[in-house]
Design a protein that fits this description.
- This protein is mostly helical.
- It has two helices and no strands.
- The model has no long low-confidence stretch (mean pLDDT about 90).
Length: about 55
């Protein structure tokens, strides 16, 4: 994985945290759940990067 992918995944994780926080503050359960989902997707992508990096070395 390239550095751009890692940055993109980190940005997706950060955006998910912002959505989750905004959902909590406003009482919007849908937005909170969407934020958690975005974070989960980013976490899966990060795990995939680690596996690929392991096999590169």
């Amino acid at each position: 994985m390239g550095a751009g992918d890692k940055i993109s995944n980190a940005a997706e994780d950060a955006a998910g945290k912002v959505k989750e926080g905004a959902g909590k503050v406003t009482g919007n359960d849908s937005l909170e759940a969407e934020g958690k989902g975005d974070q989960a997707k980013a976490d899966l992508k990060k795990a995939g990067e680690k596996v690929k990096d392991t096999f590169k070395h």
